[in-house]
Amino acid sequence: MTDKKQLVLLETDVDDCTPEVLSYLMDRLFEEGALDVQFFSAVMKKGRPGYLVRVLSSVMLEEKLSGVLMEETGTLGVRVLPVLRRYTTRRQIIELEVEVSGVKEKIRVKKSPHNIKPEYDDVAQIARKHGLSYRRVLDLVDEVMVDF
After folding, report:
1. Could you state, in order of their start, the residue ranges of all structural domains in the chain?
2. Residue 1 — very low, low, confident or very high, per pLDDT cuts 50/70/90?
3. Which positions ≥6 away from 121 have C-beta within 8 Å?
4. Which CATH superfamily is domain 7-83 in?
5. Contacts by 26-31, CB closer than 8 A, 24 or more apart
6. Contact (CB, 8 A) for 51 and 41
7. Is 9 exposed, middle or buried (0-12, 13-18, 19+ CB in 10 A)?
8. d(Cα 118, Cα 37) in Å, to the nearest integer?
9. For a designed S-S bond to 59, which of 6, 135, 136, 146 qualifies (C-beta 3.0 to 4.6 A apart)?
10. Rounded to the nearest 5°, which phi and psi values hold at 105?
11. Do the beta carbons of residue 1 and residue 44 sit within 8 Å?
C-alpha cells in the first residue's frame, strides 16, 4: 500500500551533542509529529565523531521540525529531501490481556499480515510496574500471542 501523504526527509549533521541531548531531541521530534527519527554515527570534518540525524516528516511539518532540530542541537542548517513514495502494510492495534505476577495487564499489539509485535511502551511500563526485566514481560506476552 502506498502512503499518499507528501513526505520529506530532514537531515542534519551534529558533532557536539551529548547522548542526553539526542535522546531528548528524539522525544521532542516525535511529540511534534515526526513519523520516524534516526541517528547514524558519522565522521565529521577534521575527523570528529558525530551523528547524522534523519527525520521522516509530512511536508506540512517540515518547517516546524527543522526549527526543533536547530533549536535543540544548535545545527546551522537542515537538508530537506523529497520522499518519492513510501510503501506501508496494513496494520491494526489489538489489545491483549497478559497475566503478570498474578495480575491481568492489558497490552497493545501491532498486527500486520507479516508480523505481530507488542508495543514497546506497554511492555516497558509493565516491566517497571512489576519489577521485572523487559525480556521477561516480552516472554509472557509471547506466550499469549502464540494462540493469537
Report:
1. 7-83, 92-145
2. low
3. none
4. Transcriptional regulatory protein pf0864 domain like (3.30.70.1380)
5. 28/68, 28/72, 29/55, 29/65, 29/68, 29/69
6. yes
7. middle
8. 20
9. 6
10. -120, 145
11. no
